[in-house]
Amino acid sequence: MAQTNPLWSEKKVKNYLPHMTVPEVNDFLTRSDMVIIPIGAMEQHGYHLPIGTDFINGVEQCKLIAQQRDILVVPVLMAGQSPYHMGFAGTITMKAETIIQVHMEAVESLIQHGFKRFIILNAHTGNTAVSTLLVDKINQTTPGIAVLFEQAIAPFRERTAGPPRPAAFDRHGGTGETSSSLYHMPSLVQLDKAVPATLTLPPHLQAMLPQVNAGDPTATLVFLAEGLKAKETGKKTSSAEMSSTGVWGVVDPKEGTAARGEASSTSTVNAAVKFIDRWNELRPYKPRK
């Protein structure tokens, strides 16, 4: 055999557009017009998770869904809106207008080929407003039909009673993202380098934490409205101003587990499959001639 790239290890994945040929896309269009687009980020995730955590986790989640049903996985951008992480090297941030414009052009391209329905999977909390506006823009200005992933699958999520988790602040780069990463991309997680972060929050936000941890909806709303914002806002809540490692939480990320990540991912896939089946019932696909 001829010498090949020693770094190549990727395997062809069904319904993943970057791996597909033109005949394979044409064949796909005989069965479905549905697309799922993950919108992620390229931003710091502490000392143990890669810069591409949100992008990779989002893409891998979409791939798993696409093995169960015919839905085309189309990653468009690696980077998202992450100005509050710019204090850590490697973070890339883009303006909301840029993210929306690039995705709109991608969607318009796919519509020309016969794709009609779009699920926007937001894999980065900082893209929430961007994702919402993108869905509306697709629906208002193109022949396409778009929905937000979390909104779509919410009615189909199974409520399981797991063991109670300690009421401790545990968000960006914490045990949740660590668990998802241990399941979706285990070879990229350096768990031995994870260390608990030392947080320095503005005093009034620190005072809110017990109520946020207890699940108070108003406290959580106003806490997140102010917390984790760009240094330029003057709020003193960028990740570098609040966290010693970039992780936004006080729980040791080492407490994350692949089992927890698998349970969350499987629940998400199952809910997504049920939504896709229901959408196909309500709007049966008819290939264009």
Describe the structure.
This protein is of the alpha/beta class and 289 residues long. It has a domain at 32-161 and 264-282: 3-Layer(aba) Sandwich (Rossmann fold). It is 41% helix and 6% strand. It has ten helices and four strands, in the order αβαβαβαβαααααα. It has helices spanning 22-28, 53-66, 96-113, 128-141, 149-153, 175-184, 203-213, 217-226, 239-242, 258-282; strands at 34-39, 72-73, 117-122, 145-148. The chain has a four-stranded parallel beta sheet. Helix 4 (128-141) links the parallel strand 3 and strand 4. The N and C termini lie far apart (43 Å). 38% of the residues are buried.
Summed up, what is this model?
The protein is α/β, with parallel strands linked by helices and 289 residues long. Helix content is 41%, strand content 6%.
Number of helical segments?
A: 10
Give the class from helix and strand content and strand pairing: alpha/beta
Q: Report mean pLDDT, rounded to a whole number.
A: 96
CATH class of the domain at 32-161 and 264-282: Alpha Beta
Name given to the CATH homologous superfamily of the domain at 32-161 and 264-282: Creatininase
Helix content: 40-55%
CATH topology of the domain at 32-161 and 264-282: Rossmann fold
Stretches where pLDDT is under 50 for at least 5 consecutive residues are none
CATH architecture of the domain at 32-161 and 264-282: 3-Layer(aba) Sandwich
Q: What's the gyration radius in Å? A: 20 Å
Neighbour order of strands in the largest sheet: 2-1-3-4
User: How many strands in all?
Assistant: 4
